[in-house]
Design a protein that fits this description.
The protein has 511 residues and is α/β, with parallel strands linked by helices. It has helices at 21-50, 54-79, 85-112, 117-133, 135-143, 150-179, 182-204, 210-226, 275-287, 305-313, 326-336, 351-356, 383-392, 410-420, 459-468, 478-485, 498-501, and strands spanning 233-234, 239-244, 251-256, 259-265, 295-299, 318-323, 344-348, 363-368, 393-405, 425-430, 446-453, 474-477. It has an eight-stranded mixed beta sheet, sandwiched between helices. β2 and β3 (251-256) form a beta hairpin. The longest helix is centred in the N-terminal third of the chain and has 30 residues, at 21-50. It is elongated and about 85 Å long. The termini are far apart.
Length: 511
């Protein structure tokens, strides 16, 4: 008599052959957290060279997700073909070495072989990201002792991995970056991963490459110390340096992410080096009676050049500054900052949120000069943001802003169109070729100054002030400005592709 076929029996893996439940959870949690630490810190490392733009962020996130997908697939596939216990130590150790070497490698590449930067950066994210992402399927393979518990094991470890990724994100964004240099974060993480590899090696009595990897991590730390592109300080948002002017003993330049953001004369705050700052001063001096104290609000602080100027030339002026980077504020105070008598109050806050806290009609002047490397905070450019600016200005108040753009000046045109949605009177100052007054010359881009108010401008006075400051700039409004704006679309909170409108800079000499 022939019986019915028996159901297949799952192949059992001997218990004790892999990590226990707690060890498995720790491995998955730690490796998942490490992937997100690498991703976030990579953005910080690349910002001085590629800018902190939407494109840079998207690229890094895309590479990290690619690494996670590839590592998860490859780790599972290899774990089915070889003993998974042989894979854990090398995955942790090799990824630790790559992570520890990343600061020195990226900074050296950026200075000596910039054309290779994106490729090298991709590899420094892909390699450790893939190796660390392979840990989860490897551990899952080791923890699966029968098909009856597949769902429990896979679900539990997947959940632990997700919690680890969240922990890595929160820890990096809220704690590590605010307290440690990014090079220290990566070297420390690399050392932890190599230590984890050593522990796994000791438990499984397999693979013996840890001593060599530990030496490489130490070498990476030493190499980082001498790698080019170092900072005086790594703030929450920037790689910052203060450079003394060789031609002016009291001159200091604040360099953020490789770009000259502010020039300050610590002995003479009325001295203005950058052309666009002289243009700002010209516009303000033409708009208000000489020496009259003002109530001013500044979106972006940098080196506090313009608040210092107003305090020196208009005694009694009260300047409130919204500067999001506490590290820049600390540099201002320690190396550049005005004394307590200067009438400059700096708040560490987002500029848009700072505007909301101001009373209606409380300011004579609002100055926009907020930048993040080569990008512009998009939420400070929209109709909604400008409506808030208009709210805090008094009836005769003035909004004046530094714009930066290149190529076809698409962003500057869109911002001028945006201001026209909010203010009755708008004008633009810049090089004649950039503002359409020299049709024979192609626009080169750079800095422009836009001004907006509820009252008409005295264009003759503004032009005379620009000439007196030796800017070489001209000012346009009315039909000329309408023609220059063309069909540019106003920016709103719902539509503000600022990073796409801005053209990348080819030079890094400053703003």
């Amino acid at each position: 008599m022939t019986g019915s076929p028996s159901p297949p029996v799952a192949e059992e893996t001997p218990r004790g052959s892999g990590p226990g439940p707690r060890a498995a959870a720790m491995l998955v949690f730690g490796s998942s957290a490490a992937v997100l630490v690498v991703e976030i810190v990579a953005l910080r490392l690349l910002a001085p060279y590629l800018g902190l733009t939407l494109e840079t962020s998207t690229t890094v996130i895309g590479i990290a997700l690619t690494a996670i997908a590839f590592g998860s697939w490859l780790g599972g596939r290899v774990a089915d073909q070889v003993d998974p216990r042989r894979l854990l130590g090398p995955s942790l150790g090799v990824s630790g070495v790559v992570v520890a070497l990343t600061p020195a490698v990226l900074r050296t590449t950026a200075e000596w072989a910039p054309a290779m930067l994106l490729l090298i950066a991709s590899l420094t994210i892909l390699v450790p990201g893939a190796l660390l992402s392979a840990v989860t399927p490897i551990v899952t393979k080791l923890r699966l002792t029968s098909l009856a518990e597949t769902g429990t094991v896979v679900g539990r470890l997947s959940g632990v991995g997700t919690v680890g990724a969240i922990a890595g994100t929160v820890l990096t964004g809220f704690v590590l970056v605010s307290r440690l240099p990014v090079s220290g974060i990566l070297i420390g993480l690399g050392a932890l991963l190599v230590a984890g590899s050593a522990l796994v090696e000791w438990r499984t009595r397999r693979w013996s490459g840890t001593p060599v990897l530990a030496l490489v991590v130490v070498a990476g730390g030493l190499a980082t110390a001498v790698a080019p592109g170092g900072c005086d300080a790594e703030t929450r948002y920037h790689c910052a340096r203060v450079v003394t002017d060789p031609d002016r003993d009291s001159g200091r330049t604040l360099v953020l992410d490789g770009l000259r953001h502010s020039y300050v004369d610590i002995d003479d705050p009325a001295f203005l080096e950058f052309t666009y700052v002289r243009a700002l001063a010209a516009v303000v001096d033409a708009a208000f009676p000489e020496g009259e104290p003002l109530a001013a609000h500044h979106l972006g602080g940098g080196g506090l050049t313009f608040p210092r100027y107003l305090a020196a030339t208009r005694p009694g002026t009260r300047s409130l500054v919204s500067e999001i980077d506490s590290g820049v504020v600390r540099i201002d105070r320690d190396q550049l900052g005005p004394g307590p008598e200067a009438g400059v109050d700096v708040r560490v806050e987002d500029g848009r949120l700072g505007l909301r806290r101001l009373d209606a009609g409380s300011r004579d002047l609002v100055v926009g000069d907020a930048f993040g490397g080569v990008s512009v905070p998009w939420h400070l450019t929209t109709v909604e943001a400008m409506t808030d600016v208009r709210r805090v200005l008094d009836e005769d108040g003035l909004y004046v802003a530094n714009l930066i753009d290149h190529g076809g000046l698409a962003f500057a045109r869109a911002e001028a169109a945006t201001l026209r949605e909010t203010f009755e009177h708008v004008a633009l100052a810049g090089e004649p070729a950039d503002i359409g007054l020299d049709p024979a010359a192609a626009p080169e881009g750079g800095n422009l100054v836009v001004l907006a108010s509820g009252r008409p401008f005295d264009l003759r006075a503004i032009q005379e002030a620009l000439d007196a400051r030796r800017t070489g700039w001209r000012v346009v409004t009315g039909d000329d400005l309408t023609s220059w704006i063309g069909d540019a679309r106003p920016l709103t909170d719902d539509y503000a592709p600022v990073d796409q409108l801005l053209q990348p800079r080819s030079a890094r000499s400053g703003r």
